[in-house]
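Each lists chain and fold; for instance:
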Amino acid sequence: MALHISKSKYLNGLQCPKLLRPSFTQRAPNPDPSPCQMHIFNTGHEIGDLAKLVYPDGIEVPMNYEDLAATDRDTAELLNRPSAERVPIFEASVLIDNRYCRVDVLVPIPDETGEEPNRWDLVEVKSSTRVRDVNINDVAFQYDALTRAGIVLRNLYLMHVNTAYVRGEEFDVQQSFPLEDITDRAHNVLEYVPRTVDKMLTVIAGPDPDTPIGKRCTSPYTCPLIPHCWSVLPENNVTDLYYSGVRAFGYLDEGLFSIVDVPDERLTHQQKIQKKAIASGAPYTDAAHLRGWLDELVYPVYHLDFETMNPALPPFPGLRPYQRIPFQFSLHIQDSPGAEPRHVEFLAREPGDPRAAMVAALHAIGDEGSILAWAMGFEKGVLNDMAELFPAEAEWLVELTDRMVDLMVPFRSFWYHHPDQKGSCSLKAVLPAITELSYDELDIADGNHASRAYDEAIYGSMEPEEKEQVLDHLLAYCKLDTLAMVEILGALEAV
């Protein structure tokens, strides 16, 4: 059976030879897409379907997974129509020279001179907001395959999301998806495509590649094989170093696998503290700085957390693509250190703009007291966005931001560091390290999942019973976010 490298497999192979292999062999794991990846795929499909409305007279080539040659033949029939009958082709497919690709849109170019018949523009549709290098490689692969099949291409375009577009009552497809000419950029890498494909075919046919862990593991995408490839690393390995970046891969190349093996002179101040905590097996504490920070808090303390979504397609008027929309908050209120907190929560349960109702609910925050958030820049941003939207509430909302205190500061400053944090200052890492709580038992356990779940529950086709379950899971997740801050603050007070 002949091997065919698709454009997605080509991009996988550019990132890492190991990532290329699973689709062709059983000698490496072939992991299923994560929920986050599936959401990205679904968003891409949704945008692809909408983008077709730009070419209302287009025809789609049906996909035949059992017979790829059939899609090639169906495409050829449309390509070879008389000039007057040519129309845009969606999912035009080519199978040639170990290459298989489906093109989002081929747009026919009218020939007014009779000298260059049957030319086409290629349009690649992406849910991104700008052109990336991976897009150029994608289109270059398509160009290589199509021209091998005798298709004459004029210009190459990327159709992407326009974040400057503001939705009116109706969604304007033309304004939302502009075309960017990438012909020259794609041509600049064309010469590399044939020999790269040949190298990939050699990799597929040969032994498992010995590709070291490196920057490729997370660029341009986070590789799904990380759990497999990184499983050989010891606990507290150098990839866990605080803000190590690509330097960690250099340590691995040198044979320095454990954090405790790295000489102190090569570590930052925070990394030295991390190493010390790992070596001792006990938390590191800078009591003076920590106590000074705690003494600055003003009670009652309000523990605040927002959940937002950033849909590519604005669900109601007045929004831009990927604009941040808060739909939920949780608020735990402590009147004094160690006091039992009171809880206030808000969740928009129906479609439409939730922000006015959210601002009204936020008045549960009193006129005095510190407002705690984790990585407070996010919460400040949400409040400032709403201040711009509601001028009558702007002064009050801005005053709330002035009272905010970041609970991450003691951990980011390494005034307190527990070895179980693994060099991370995220709430998900700190909470189980210093309290009895964790997110392990929750059905929704991170912000990205919360955003996707809310979008699907409110704007998707979810059944009512399932929708209510999702909303309950969202309430539980957001509530834990602020209860976590209560518990972490209590743990710091007890140091």
Notes: The radius of gyration is 27 Å. The chain has three domains: 5-205, 215-278, 289-493. The first strand starts at residue 5 and ends at 6.
